[in-house]
Each structure stands twice: as structure tokens, then as C-alpha cells.
Amino acid sequence: MNKILIVDDEQDLREMINLMMAKEGYETEMAQDGIDFLKKNDNFQPDIVTLDVMMPGLTTKDILEELKDKYNKPKIILLTVVRFSDEEKEKLFKMGNVVDYITKPFDFDELVTTIKDNSVD
Amino acid sequence: MAETEVVHVNFWKEMHKEIRKTIKNIHGLVLLTHNSVDFSDIVDFLNKIRREEKLTILYISLVNSYSNMKKILDVKPLDSKKLFVVDCVSNFITEHIDTVDCVYTKPPDNLNDMKELIMENIQKFHPNLVVLDSLSQFINFSMPSNEKLHNFYRFLKSIRRDVIGITNDTFILIYDDKMGSMKTLPTLFTDTILKLEVIREEIKWQD
């Protein structure tokens, strides 16, 4: 069973994704910010992480840099309202273990498909 | 079929002639809701505002990077308006050095920090018009918690008290309404609420 960690400061959205992925058969865990994520990443050891790009506290860059030195390196799917250019996207994918990128507001089916595409068989 | 109950009804007035006049003479605290993903649609909107005046705009962007915006502005310039940008996006990827017309910073954590960022840059650029793109970072009007609404109203009140009429005359809050129907409209705290609806179709190529 794939493990997924949902990181978002927006509680409603976090819980909605959590509920949906649990229904899809994933083992789930939630984190409300970057520090909470880094703590839970060590204990929960997820395969996939959905990471909100804009959260209070640590920036996404800080989080991805912090992850570089960790033993557990989950696949990161970024969730963001930011409209990055193709050039910027390319740079993003070179940071940490970013495998995909979804622009908010998103369709939940799109999110589920993206997570499934990046799951380990 | 599942039972439903009406939570809220929003009335929208659509009179094209009147809307054109409203946009042309826009002042005060404005909420612009939209369904677009393109910055060029926002440029079109800004170009419709007070065309005969030379306005200075302070654009606080939490959605588009300055380099991205610049590419669009090269093709579609802001007519008689001078633009200063606070880019809260680019530093996600690499550190940038401020230029004459752009300040790079990390996105504010909350509306209090946003207010500080606005005040700091108003003193620097002395704009007539401030644009905040986008409010969707801080509030979701389709499912707002009481706490978030309360903070948002407090933010609007402080903007009216400290910004409108003192340093500048117009403040536009952009909100992407694709998150869902707006259950709450801040009618008491804004002067104008506008809805920008962009309808796109695939281009049918003809031989």
C-alpha cells in the first residue's frame, strides 16, 4: 500500500484530499506546515507527498533543500496557485524530488490521477 | 437525488454600458473576481481603467513571476500606466536581486504581513493604484471559516483606514473564483465588486 502525506495549511482542503486518498486505498497522514511535514516525513516515511507551495513558516525551497539530506526521499507533487513559466517549471523539477505540479484550483479527479501515476506498483 | 438547501444567493447586475463606465472611473476598494488563468486578461482590465490618466500601479503578485509578467507586457503593454511589481513568486526557485521596477520577496504568511508589505512598498513607489493578485492565497469564499472571514474584514478595514485616500485612491483585490461558488461576498467592506468572465474556445483552423 502506498503511503501519502498531505501537506497544506488550509485545513478543509487538507482533510478533503486525505479523505479522498484514504478512499482510494492509500495509507494517509497530514501535516499543516513545513516543520510539521519534516517531522512526519521521518516517522511516517511516505512514498508520495502533496505539498502546498505557499505555507506559513518554511518556504518550499527550504523544505526541498532540507529533504536533500534525509534518508527518506518521497516523490513530491506540488500544489500551487502560482502560474510558473515553462522555464521556471524546469528549474522546479530540478529541485529535490519534485515529480509533478498541479495548479490550484484543481479538479479532484486530476489530483487523484496524478497521484496514481506517481504511485509505486 | 440528494436533498439540498440554499446557502446563499448572489445577485449580479450585468449591464455592459454601465460596467464600462464603472471600470473607466473606478475608485476605492474593489474586489475583482475572475475565472481566468492568463495575466494578459488582467492587463486588458487594467488598461480599461481611467485611460486618460497617467497612473502608477503597485502590483503585488503571488501568482505570476515578474519575468513571466514582463513577457506578456512586452506584447501587450500597459498603455499610460507605470508599473512596479512586488514579486512573491520567483524566490521559490532562485534568489533574485531587486531592480528599479521590481522587488523580490517571500510571500507574506498572513494578511497582517501582507498589510505591512503593502505599506512598505507604497512608501517606496507612491502608487495611485494598488493591485493584490491574488486574494485566493488567503481566503476561499466558497468555504470560508469564521476566523478567516474575520481576519479578512479586519484587513479590508485597515486598508480603507491607512491606504485609501491617504497614499492612493484605488485598491484592487483580485480573486480567482474557480475554487467554487462564492458563498460570502464582502459587500459591506468594499466599494465595488466586479466579475470578470473569460470564455475561451479552441481556434478552428480553416484551409
Q: Could you characterize the architecture of this molecule?
A:
The complex is a heterodimer of chains A (121) and B (207). Chain A has 121 residues and is of the alpha/beta class. Chain A has one domain (3-117): 3-Layer(aba) Sandwich (Rossmann fold), CATH 3.40.50.2300. Helices cover 42% and strands 22% of the residues of chain A. With 207 residues, chain B is α/β, with parallel strands linked by helices. Chain B has a single domain (40-178, 186-196), classed as Rossmann fold. The longest helix of chain B has 17 residues, at 146-162. The A-B interface holds A 10-13, 53-54, 56-57, 59-61, 81-85, 87-88, 91-92, 95, 103-105 and B 37, 39, 62-65, 67-68, 71, 89-94, 106-107, 109-110, 134, 136-137, 140, 143, 145, 176, 178-180.
Q: Which characteristics define this entry?
A:
heterodimer, A: 121 residues, alpha/beta, Rossmann fold, five-stranded parallel β-sheet, 5 helices, 5 strands, 22% strand, B: 207 residues, seven-stranded parallel β-sheet, globular
**Assembly type of the shown chains?**
heterodimer
Helical percent range of chain B? 25-40%
Q: Class of chain A in CATH? A: Alpha Beta
Report the principal-axis shape of chain A: globular
Number of domains of chain B: 1
- Lateral strand order in the biggest sheet of chain B: 4-3-2-5-6-1-7
Report, as a whole number of angstroms, the end-to-end distance of chain B.
48 Å
By DSSP (H or I, 4+ residues per run), the number of helices of chain A equals 5
Number of extended strands of chain A: 5
The tally of domains of chain A stands at: 1
- CATH homolog superfamily of chain A: Response regulator
Major pleated sheet of chain B: 7 strands, parallel
SS element count, helices of chain B: 5
